[in-house]
Design a protein that fits this description.
45% helix; 2 domains; 3-stranded antiparallel beta sheet; 8 helices; alpha+beta; 11 strands
Length: 283
């Protein structure tokens, strides 16, 4: 039971729209919260001083927008939340909890400015502020998270990736009509651009082989987009991070030693930052 739960909560999961699109998501969240508060008036909320109830709630909602954007962008700086392609249910729930807690603290503090400090500096008021945020915002967050539940069934995943019991398989298409081949990602070592052709360096049963198709490396990169262990290292190379044995050099110019490959693969300066982020996350 514990193992099944761990598998479920760590499954790949589409990122909540409010987190994926922080600017649009923040405006949407503020607008929804304002409508909810005006319609339902939970916890006997009232206006502030000479301001009407609607004007007071509008002020709170407006102030939420930049803060929500800041909280989402700040989360992306944390290693655990930094790679969207590795998003999971566990990360989704943790991110929502942190964001709503941050909003609750802000609403409590912002109340001193809007409604004055009188009788606000106490635990009960702080808890009320957090309850209001969780009641309003958690509903929209929850709806958008539940919408993505269908993606827990891998047959519905919105990608070209096909799940096999033992391997991940993807169909690689050529620019030549009718030419394509099935790539077992566990076999892929690296991909190399040679003129108008792309060479896939593969490893099967301890032996290396090559598969060549007519295409550009940029188009192949798009076909493999969303796979956290596949990274473009150079204008002419794409590498499977799982096949890296050794990394030498620094961010000004890495060289990679891969399984079963004599030559070293370069990491250009322009690709070094993304490579570092993905490499660290996969190790």
């Amino acid at each position: 039971m514990t193992i099944k739960y761990a598998d479920w909560i760590n499954k790949k999961y589409p990122q909540n729209y409010l987190i994926q699109k922080p600017v649009i998501g923040s405006v949407l969240l503020a607008f929804y919260s304002l409508l909810f508060l005006i319609i339902y008036k939970p916890f006997n909320l009232t206006g502030s001083g000479q301001m009407s109830f609607e004007a007071t709630m509008s002020l709170y909602a407006l102030a939420m927008v930049p803060l929500h954007i800041f909280l989402v962008l700040a989360l992306r700086k944390i290693k655990f939340f930094s790679i969207q392609e590795q998003w999971s249910i566990r990360k989704e729930l943790a991110a929502i909890l942190l964001i709503l807690t941050g909003l609750g603290i802000f609403i409590f503090a912002f109340g001193f400015l809007v409604q004055g400090p009188s009788n606000r500096l106490n635990l009960a008021t702080f808890i009320d502020s957090c309850k209001i945020v969780f009641l309003t915002c958690a509903i929209l967050y929850g709806i958008l998270t539940l919408i993505n539940l269908r993606y827990l069934d891998t047959t519905n995943l919105p990608a070209t990736l096909i799940q096999d019991p033992n391997k991940e398989i993807i169909q690689i298409k050529s620019r030549l009509k009718g030419e394509a081949f099935t790539l077992h990602l566990s076999d892929l070592i690296y991909i190399e651009s040679e003129g108008n052709y792309i060479v896939f360096h593969l490893s099967q049963n301890g032996l290396t082989r090559k598969e060549t198709i007519r295409n550009s490396i940029s188009e192949v990169e798009q076909m493999l987009d969303g796979l956290p262990f596949i990274v473009r290292t150079h204008r002419a190379f794409i590498v499977n991070i799982n096949k890296i044995n050794k990394r030498s050099g620094n961010s000004s110019g890495y060289r990679l030693q891969l399984d079963g490959v004599a030559e070293q693969i370069p990491v250009s300066r322009s690709n070094a930052e993304k490579f570092d982020r993905l490499y660290s996350a996969m190790r």
